[in-house]
Each structure stands twice: as C-alpha cells, then as structure tokens.
Design brief:
The complex is a heterodimer of chains A (about 90) and B (about 100). Chain A has about 90 residues and is mostly helical. Chain A is about 80% helix and about 0% strand. Chain A is flat, with a radius of gyration of 15 Å. Chain B has about 100 residues and is mainly alpha-helical. The chains are: A mainly alpha (about 90), B mainly alpha (about 100).
Chain lengths: ~90, ~100
C-alpha cells in the first residue's frame, strides 16, 4: 500500500511542477488563472491523499475551503481582466 | 475495498498529471483550459471516492458529497468566466490583426 501512496504522491508532484511552470511562464494572466485553478485542485487531491494515508479525516473542511477559494480567485481574475495587460 | 480506493487514488493522480501535461503542451489559452479543467474535476472526484471507499460511513459521505458538488459547480462556472474573457481577448486581437482595407 505504501508503494501505491508513493506513486500517487509522485504523480501529483509532477502535475504540480507542470502547473507551476505554466504559472511562471504563462504569457497572459488568464493562463496563470487556469494554471492556479489546476494547482488548487492538485492541492485538494493532496489533502485528500494525506487524509487517506494518515487515516485522519479531520481535513474535510480544508477541502471545502480550498474549493471555494479557487473559485473566487479565478472568477475575480477573469471578471476584472482588462484584456491587454501581460 | 482498499484495492478500489488505491485504484481510484492512482487514477485520480494520473488524471491530475495529464492536466499538468496539457497545461505545458498546448498553445493557446482555450486549449489549455480544455486540457486543464476536465481532468482536474475528475481527479478531485476520484480522490473523494477513494476517501469514501477508505472509510465508508454516512458521516463521511455528507461532507464528501458537499465538496464534490461544490467542486463541479464552481469549476464549471469559473471555466466559463475564464473562457469568456479569453475568447473576447482572442477575437479582439484577431480584429486588430486584419489587413488594412483596400481603399488605402
């Protein structure tokens, strides 16, 4: 079971590295918004994975907060995006 | 039951990695959204299913259902907003790149 958890953590880490690369590189702010959205969901996956690994489900409110937080961030960025700034 | 939870975990992490790879590989913002949003939602839902399979009680099912439903709703709305901004930006840029009119 430990090998499965390690493989899952490695996959999540590779995905997070790719999303972070896009956050740093991304030509427009919308690319960064999309990449940060993916990064938020990756951290949600990581919180759920650690809840399963440690057999401790007290992190469930953290998942809810992360979900709503990513929503507010990307929607406000897309709503007030001026259109030309890079 | 634990094997199913492990399979869901690995599958969710693989989908998350595919979202990251799509973010790196694709060219335009709309392509990146297309590659990013759908595996993202599916990976979170699979991890939630794995959490429920790991400890299948009704006390865990409620918060997990709330998290999954809010994730589906909010990610679709956020993707709609970002796609609208990206599309308007792309179309306005297409208009500015039109060749000059023929009367000039």
């Amino acid at each position: 079971m430990t090998a499965v958890y390690l493989v899952t953590m490695a996959l999540l880490a590779c995905g997070a590295a790719a999303a972070l690369w896009r956050v740093g590189r991304g030509p427009s702010m919308l690319d960064r918004a999309v990449a940060l959205d993916v990064l938020t969901s990756l951290s949600m996956c990581a919180v759920g994975l650690f809840a399963v690994v440690r057999d401790d489900y007290s992190d469930l409110p953290v998942l809810q907060v992360l979900s709503l937080l990513g929503f507010v961030g990307s929607v406000s960025l897309a709503r007030f995006f001026p259109g030309r700034s890079r | 039951m634990d094997v199913a939870a492990a399979a869901c975990l690995v599958l969710g992490a693989g989908l998350a990695l595919s979202a990251g790879a799509g973010l790196v590989r694709f060219r335009t913002t709309l392509d990146r959204m297309h590659a990013g949003t759908k595996p993202q939602v599916l990976s979170v839902l699979l991890v939630l299913v794995a959490m429920w399979l790991h400890r299948p009680t009704w006390w865990n099912a409620g918060p997990l259902l709330i998290v999954g439903a809010s994730q589906v709703i909010t990610v679709s709305v956020a993707a709609y907003m970002v796609a609208r901004a990206a599309y308007s930006r792309q179309s306005s840029r297409d208009e500015t790149e039109m060749p000059p009119s023929e009367e000039d």
